[in-house]
């Protein structure tokens, strides 16, 4: 055993509760195998679009997620399944890499 908890410590503390952190999933989406029309379709569906004076919300915004960069999104962990189901429309062409983070 490399580490032994101090004697008398009967409970394991949940770090996310201790530091008031919220779990998210960092998703990197690779659309290189899609043609241009499909890339625009996926991009608009995720980020939303503006037409004249009206703004359509993207799916990431509906899930209370954030766009961090080109093809990189931060999605709340409880909404991860919805995000996967949404992207399954373009599977297997869209590849996703995920990492769990707490903010």
Give an overview of the whole structure:
The chain is of the alpha+beta class. It has one domain. The longest helix has 12 residues.
Short description, anyone?
The protein has 103 residues and is of the alpha+beta class. It contains 4 helices and 6 strands.
Query: Whole-Å distance between the termini?
Result: 31 Å
Question: How many individual helices?
Answer: 4
Q: SSE string, helix = H, strand = E?
A: HEHEEHEEHE
User: What oligomeric state is this?
Assistant: single chain
The largest beta-sheet arranges its strands as 4-5-1-6
Give the uncertain stretches in residue-range form. 8-12
Structural class: alpha+beta
| Residue-averaged pLDDT | 81
By DSSP, the count of extended strands is 6
Residue fraction in strands: 25-35%
Number of individual domains: 1
- Helix fraction, binned, reads 25-40%
